[in-house]
Task: inverse folding
């Protein structure tokens, strides 16, 4: 080495020695981080397989009602919890129709996922990404963030799991109707509600322009709701209140052109409610001027007209300014691909057993709208159940023993208990009116059970069901080791011993249907049905108390108070 080069090295060494220690550490840290970043970028797909202290890794897909409820109740000190979802918040979906008209602000009904677990101990990680493939054989999920985190800038990464909890929900079901996706609004996400709110105001602003004919004004403020379920009915009621209580004062010349239509393919709206509520809602809509079209099926939607058909009138096309599609839910593509892998290709949603385990694979659970519990028939196991009770093979049992058998059936088949408690079956109940000492023919009782079997239906795709499923599964995970040693479930009909856990038991707490004009229909357990202003205040109190945090509860109550005092905001924001 030349003398000039040696002198340069000596000066560099002296400069390093004179540099404070904290600056040298900072340089090393920066270089190390850059090297690690380059190494990660060099891989096409980043694989995340780290664990925490040997704990089992639980991966949750989705942050809806089921996912958030599971996350809220799982003991994060027992598991390494990872959450993957395209949105980093939980959304209180029952108030989405209120967001469309400014009754409640969008941020008042969302709770950041990290807030839910912020004050709890244990390992927790969240990635804002979308899972597009589940590989149950290798126990991995493939995700895409969309932000670009590797060399190809496609944001792909892979996460392995020990337990997978699928709570991705569902997508709107268009029934492959032409033009729906391109021209209709949906009401499943906060973004949907915000788009509807902007579109409503744009329709009014266009109708207020001076160079339009009366027909053009009518078209611009013709609001069409396709679907007579709870979401569609509540949105129509909210929009009617918004127009009559607020926009009529701001657009007095436009008010007379406004028309709100509800199109339902069936005979009635709100068919999942008691008939008394259905008839009241239909009468109220007619009285308040909402155009209710039943037995009409939408066959095509263009950018200017909605074409619908009716057996009596044939096909008719009506112009519209805004259309909201609310006709039910469909399966997400990722779930459809997963169903093919586990042998459920011919089903509409994922099938699980009574413990929410996906049929056809191990350590995968599915909750909420993306799955349904396979309702086992009592008659499949009824002979084995009665063999235990009728030990002497007499063919008869006392009413007391029959009631004991019924209790065993309730424990094994919660859906039977739910059905019998929510429906009055005269023939079944008459069998149990006899004195407990009197004997009852077993075959007659089996016929009554067969009648129940034929009537039991799948659980509804509601927030109430999803939240209860999430809490149930989290409780099972928290007590996994305890129940492994001391099973608490019913005796196995096929095999020895007991099931580890009791099967999921849904408790129906009632349902509401806001109908506008400060009137709400309520159907609560015990065949309690009421419609009126007092029920509206019950709706306020229940929905405020059901918020995921005190923060969102206070925000929602504040929004309601602001609306009472100042009305709804009509700005196009």
Result:
């Amino acid at each position: 080495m030349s003398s000039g080069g040696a002198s340069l090295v000596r000066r560099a060494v002296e400069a390093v020695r004179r540099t404070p220690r904290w600056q040298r550490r900072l340089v090393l840290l920066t270089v190390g981080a850059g090297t690690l970043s380059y190494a990660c970028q060099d891989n096409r797909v980043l694989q995340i397989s780290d664990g925490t202290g040997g704990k089992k890794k639980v991966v949750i897909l989705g942050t809806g009602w089921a996912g958030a409820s599971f996350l809220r109740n799982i003991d994060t000190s027992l598991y390494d919890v990872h959450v993957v979802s395209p949105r980093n918040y939980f959304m209180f979906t029952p108030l989405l129709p209120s967001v469309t008209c400014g009754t409640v602000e969008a941020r008042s009904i969302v709770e950041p996922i990290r807030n839910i677990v912020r004050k709890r101990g244990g390992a927790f990680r969240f990635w804002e990404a979308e899972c597009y493939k589940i590989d149950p054989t290798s126990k991995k999920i493939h995700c895409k963030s969309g932000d670009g985190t590797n060399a190809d800038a496609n944001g792909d990464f892979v996460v392995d799991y020990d337990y997978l909890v699928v709570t991705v929900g569902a997508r709107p079901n268009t029934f492959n109707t032409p033009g729906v996706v391109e021209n209709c609004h949906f009401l499943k996400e906060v973004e949907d509600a915000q788009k509807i709110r902007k579109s409503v105001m744009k329709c009014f602003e266009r109708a207020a322009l001076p160079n339009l004919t009366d027909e053009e004004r009518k078209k611009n403020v013709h609001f069409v709701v396709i679907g007579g379920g709870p979401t569609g009915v509540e949105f129509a009621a909210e929009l009617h209140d918004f127009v009559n209580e607020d926009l009529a004062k701001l657009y007095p010349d436009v008010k007379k052109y406004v028309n709100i239509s509800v199109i339902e393919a069936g005979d009635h709206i709100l068919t999942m409610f008691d008939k008394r509520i259905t008839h009241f809602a239909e009468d109220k809509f007619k009285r308040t001027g909402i155009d209710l079209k039943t037995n009409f099926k939408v066959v095509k939607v263009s950018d200017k007209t909605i074409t619908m058909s009716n057996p009596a009138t044939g096909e008719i096309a009506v112009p519209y300014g805004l259309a909201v599609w609310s006709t039910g839910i469909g399966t997400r593509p990722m779930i459809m691909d997963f169903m093919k892998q586990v042998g459920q290709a011919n089903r509409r949603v994922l099938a699980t057993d009574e413990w929410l385990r996906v049929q056809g694979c191990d350590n995968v659970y599915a909750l909420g709208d993306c799955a349904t519990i396979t309702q086992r028939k009592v008659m499949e196991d009824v002979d084995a159940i009665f063999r235990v009770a009728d030990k002497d093979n007499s063919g008869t049992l006392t009413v007391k023993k029959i009631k004991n058998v019924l209790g065993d059936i309730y424990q094994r088949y919660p859906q039977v208990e739910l059905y019998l408690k929510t429906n009055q079956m005269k023939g079944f109940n008459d069998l149990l009116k006899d004195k407990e000492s009197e004997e009852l023919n077993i075959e007659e009782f089996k016929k009554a059970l067969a009648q129940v079997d034929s009537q039991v239906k799948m659980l509804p795709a509601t927030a109430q069901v999803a939240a209860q499923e999430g809490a149930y599964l989290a409780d099972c995970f928290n007590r996994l080791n305890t129940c492994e040693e001391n099973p608490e479930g019913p005796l196995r009909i096929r095999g020895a011993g007991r099931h580890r856990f009791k099967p999921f038991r849904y408790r129906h707490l009632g349902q509401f249907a806001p109908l506008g004009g400060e009137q709400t229909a309520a159907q609560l357990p015990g065949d309690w049905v009421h419609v009126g202003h007092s029920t509206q205040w019950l709706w306020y109190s229940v929905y405020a108390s059901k918020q995921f945090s005190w923060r969102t509860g206070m925000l929602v109550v504040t929004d309601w108070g602001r609306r009472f005092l100042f009305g709804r905001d009509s700005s196009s924001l």
The chain has three domains: 53-170+331-375+459-507, 185-330+509-566, 377-457. Confidence is low (pLDDT under 50) at residues 26-44. The longest helix spans residues 21-41. Residues 53-170+331-375+459-507 form a domain with the FAD/NAD(P)-binding domain fold (CATH 3.50.50.100).
